[in-house]
Amino acid sequence: MIRAIFPLPVFILPGGYTRLRIFEVRYLDMVKEALKSDGQFVLCDFDPQSFSNVPETGCLVKIVDFDQDDKGHLLIDIHAQSIVTINNVTFSKSKLRHGETALLEEPEWLSHTQPLSFGDYILKESLEKLFTENYELSSLYKSTRFDDLPWVIARWLELIPISHNKKQQLAFNSGFANIQNFLHTVINNEFT
């Protein structure tokens, strides 16, 4: 399916939410276009190496709410739906990118519910604390799954302050145990 594409250095995985500030005309057009159909577009990394600045993959996101900030800019809350491939990118007159998209199988670790073990409670409790202390973050989530380890790990990968490339590498090129061990090291150093 052909969808509008928004290259932006925001890392999000299926199940995640974030808020975007929309002010460029082309992205206002993107929101209008999305809302005329199913409310979805593709959010992807900005790739300076490609002609269109669009990588081969992105995340299909759905607009779930909108508002205005104090400067009159549009704010949209989006919910990540699935990972997609992106091909045959074109530009509209307003320079909005569009591309052919197809669903891509998610990393196996992300698609399986797994309960927390005793050792994983630090990941859960520290994420719950972060949500409690950050109203803007917690207000995006209508429901949470703090007892589902892959959900907790996905949210930590979105939030942890490491490079976008490192997040991509961990999420898509590492096994679940490696991601889990990495997060335990970082979170244990920060929260204990």
What does this entry look like structurally?
The protein is of the alpha+beta class. The chain has two domains: 2-103, LON domain-like (Archaeosine Trna-guanine Transglycosylase, Chain: A, domain 4); 108-191, LON domain-like fold, CATH 1.10.4060. It has six helices and six strands, in the order ββαββββααααα.
| Element string (H = helix, E = strand) | EEHEEEEHHHHH
The secondary-structure class comes to alpha+beta
From the N-terminal CA to the C-terminal CA, the straight-line distance is 47 Å
Number of strands: 6
- Second CATH tier, the architecture of the largest domain: Roll
> On the 0-100 scale, what is the average pLDDT?
93
Domain count: the total is 2
**Strand ordering within the main sheet:** 1-3-4-5-6
CATH superfamily descriptor of the largest domain: LON domain-like
Give the topology, please:
Blueprint: E1 2-7, E2 17-22, H1 25-36, E3 40-44, E4 57-68, E5 74-91, E6 97-103, H2 121-133, H3 135-138, H4 149-159, H5 164-173, H6 176-191
Parallel strand pairs: 1-3
Antiparallel strand pairs: 1-6, 2-5, 3-4, 4-5, 5-6
Brief synopsis:
This protein has helices at residues 25-36, 121-133, 135-138, 149-159, 164-173, 176-191; strands spanning 2-7, 17-22, 40-44, 57-68, 74-91, 97-103.
Question: Which terms would index this structure?
Answer:
LON domain-like fold; alpha+beta; single chain; Archaeosine Trna-guanine Transglycosylase, Chain: A, domain 4; 2 domains; 192 residues; five-stranded mixed barrel
